Amino acid sequence: QVQLLESGGGLVQAGGSLRLSCATSGLTFSNYNMGWFRQAPGKEREFVASITRRAITYYTDSAKGRFTISRDNAKNTVYLQMNSLKPEDTAVYYCAADVGSGLYQHVSSQYDYWGQGTQVTVSS
Questions:
Q1: Are 108 and 37 a contacting pair, CB within 8 Å?
Q2: CA separation (Å) from 4 to 7, 77, 96?
Q3: Please, which pLDDT band fits residue 87 given cuts at 50, 70 and 90?
Q4: Which residues, other chains included, contact 123 with Cβ-Cβ below 8 Å and sequence gap of 6+?
C-alpha cells in the first residue's frame, strides 16, 4: 500500500520559514518524480514545485527564490524548504508522486499518489 505522509506545517509569521517533509512508503521512491501542490480556501489546487527522479527541479513563479524542493532517496522523503513566507502562501500543502516521464510536472493529473496534506498558515 502506497502512503505519502506530509509533516512540518504550522503557523508562522510573515517572513518566517517552514520545512515540509513528505515521507513515502510502499513505492520505489527513486523511480518517482515528486511534487508539491497547495490549495487555499475557495481556490483550486495549484502547483508549487517538483523534482524529477533525476533531481531536476521546477517551481511556480511565486515560489522561485523563496522555496527549495529536495529529495533524499535513502530516506524515501521529499522536502520543501519555504523561506520568506507571505500570507498568500497560506494553504494546505500536498505532496504527490508520479511514475511517468517527468513532463508536465505542473499538472496535478500527472500524479499517481497523493498525501493527505499539511496546513500552512502565515500570519501578517
A1: yes
A2: 10, 9, 7
A3: very high
A4: 11, 12, 13, 14, 87
